[in-house]
Amino acid sequence: MKSMGILSVFMMLFVAFAVQAQPSAIKIDQRQLVEYPKDAREEFLENMRDHLVALADIVTALATRNYIEAANIASSRLGMESRGADGCRPMKSHSSMDMMRMHSQPDSMALMMPGDMKKLGQRMHRFADEFAEAARNNTDLQHDDVAVLAALGKLVQACSDCHSKFRIR
Ligand code: HEC
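# heme C complex -> structure
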């Protein structure tokens, strides 16, 4: 019995050493994998890259105090009514007949996206609209940068909230 105790202490030390020696080997990716067909995956990532370009354009517009420009970019490229939001729209039903009728990519994208992910997507699009509103409200030269930047912060955080939960490859 005693030797079993010693053996297990030894094993624990060994495991602890192995874990410490190879920290990267035990790092587990906790994100949920969402499997898209190849074409849809390419389109999804292209849309994502455009999201980042839109964010860069927003920051550039803000740097020159061009609030209207920043607002327009946010609502037209990231907002709820933007093309990029098509894949996150709620579907009326999920029957197989609907599946067969689906021809457009955004519709099928919306069908393939898990509900939790779609909610995070809608949340990001909503924050983009709220940012646009904050930026538009700032045009009478009140210079309320704090409100505008806070809204921008919420938007960027919403991108990262989804990135930390889901992956597609
Ligand atoms: C609803 C979830 C979700 C939201 C919201 C979201 N993304 Fe993504 N994004 C993803 C996923 C999933 C990937 C793929 C990650 C992977 O598989 O490694 C991705 C990948 C990306 C990539 C890499 C593209 C490539 O070609 O590799 C960029 C850039 C990106 N997102 C930018 C953004 C920006 C900027 C925002 C916010 C304005 C945003 N994303 C919001 C889910 C999201």
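# post-check
Helices lie at 2-21, 38-63, 67-78, 96-101, 105-112, 115-136, 145-163.
The domain at 38-89+113-169 is CATH 1.20.120 (Four Helix Bundle (Hemerythrin (Met), subunit A)).
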